[in-house]
Amino acid sequence: MPGALAAQAEARPALARALATGPAPTAPDGDLTGTVADALGTEGVAVHRPALGTLVADVPADAAARHRARAAVDAVDDEAVRLRSAVKAHDGFFTTFFISPYSRYIARWCARRGLTPNQVTTASLLTALIAAGCAATGERGGYVAAGVLLLLSFVLDCTDGQLARYALKYSTMGAWLDATFDRAKEYAFYAGLALGAARNGDDVWTLALTAMILMTCRHVVDFSFNEANTDDEAAAGSTAKTSLALSSRLDGVGWTVWARRMIILPIGERWAMIAVLTAVTSPRIVFWALIVGCSFAACYTTAGRLLRSVKRRAPRSDRAARALADLADSGPLARLGARIFGDRGRRIGFLFALGGAAGMLTSAWMWPFGDRQVVIMALFYGIFWSGFAVSGPLKGAFDWLVPPFFRAAEYGTIAILAVKSDAPHAVPAAFGLVAAVAYHHYDTVYRIRGGTGAPPAWLVRITGGHEGRTLLVAVLAALLVDRGDDFTLALTALAAALALVVLVESIRFWVSSGAPAVHDEGETA
């Protein structure tokens, strides 16, 4: 923007150097800020240059220029600009063409009546919960109502952000509510579909749990890769300017932009698919469509990121390595192993995370439910495999895979043991446990992206870390193998305890914190 430049605290030294070595304020081109911004970019500072669009920004040098600038400013339709600015610039196909054309006017209607974004967010949650209740009836009319209400909930979900941008009412609590409630709404709807199917004699809890695990692990891949590459614009030899050439060429062809955004099945497309299939088919078909769609999206995005990582030469920054270590959610057992192995895991941590996850899942699947071999493997996984994976700084080209491998091992072990258990309702209890743990992992992502770092160390210790919870579930399976529904009760109690501890700490943090929560569903590969 002509005449205006702001630098965050970490860029102030680079700004001082640019001003010290740059041109004098009377530079011939008259654009000191542009010259300084170019100098900052040369030093590796990521410079954000806001697009003005129809807005006008100028630094007039004389009366005639001031008159022209004033006329240009007066010619701008401020209300039209506010409405356009309320909509995110890069959104999914369904949201852009089927929701935003009218949701922006709903946002304006809410603003003129004094409604806040948080109130709209809460209304979206309540609407989704009612939709889940309708799906739980198991009746065709309930399914149709559930589909319609889920779409209405998504309209409100888009409206709350547009209202915040339209009315300039941003808040930490609002960002956290928006990010958190999306997970709660989707998980609740899955549960409603499973309950509705059970009323008709169709047990789809395993499919519901599988769909939730796939979606969550896919998001973890997104978050880990993005955090690992946050500093790439400033890294020499990074993939930011090399392996993205194909993506840039594809973006030049209009229809490929929308196709690539739809392929990753973002929240708009995903909820539209769920709503339509719920209304016209059965819960089993809904979950199979989710599993197939999420699997394809995960393969597509992960393949693209693996290709980028193959060409990577520069090591990751210390900040990126810390973010990956925080996302790993390593508890006391893994930290003990890391101290034992020292720095031996440098640049090969992802191989041990992969080996440990594969071994843990294979053991849980191959050995009988409650077998002590699973407990032994869980202990070995926690100390050796997990400890070695995080024993060195996660700066390798593929170390962003460490958190996703850990998530797959933990969630998958819980699911496998619940499915193999003879205890009634063990899978629904496992669904609740995975949902509670997944919330903890999403909350960690939001904190890191808000610039506040990981949750406190005591929370990671008291929740056991990913390896501690995996071992605990394996021990419970071994102790309660022949005790009726005790395994179900144990999983339920563990889910409730984890949810209570994590949610209370999360609410305390976001209410008192000044950091923004960042909600992101990933990006194209």
Written description of the protein model:
The chain has 525 residues and is mainly alpha-helical. Helices cover 70% and strands 0% of the residues. It contains 22 helices and no strands. Helix 9 (205-228) packs parallel to helix 13. The longest helix has 28 residues, at 140-167. The radius of gyration is 25 Å and the shape is globular. The protein starts with 11 loop residues before the first helix and ends in a 13-residue tail after the last helix. It holds the Pfam family CDP-OH_P_transf.
Essential attributes:
70% helix; 525 residues; DUF5941 domain-containing protein; transmembrane; CDP-OH_P_trans; membrane; phosphotransferase activity, for other substituted phosphate groups
Quick structural gist:
By secondary structure, the protein is mainly alpha-helical.
Which strand-content bin applies to the residues? Answer: under 5%
Show unreliable segments. Answer: 233-246
Query: Total number of β-strand segments?
Result: 0
Helix content class: over 70%
Structural class: mainly alpha
Q: What is the topology?
A:
Layout: H1 12-21, H2 32-42, H3 63-74, H4 78-85, H5 93-112, H6 117-135, H7 140-167, H8 172-199, H9 205-228, H10 245-251, H11 254-263, H12 267-280, H13 283-310, H14 318-328, H15 332-341, H16 349-366, H17 372-389, H18 402-420, H19 426-449, H20 457-463, H21 465-479, H22 486-512
Helix pairs in contact: 1-2, 5-7, 6-7, 6-8, 7-12, 8-9, 8-19, 9-13, 9-18, 9-19, 12-13, 14-18, 15-17, 16-17, 16-18, 17-21, 18-19, 18-21, 19-22, 20-21
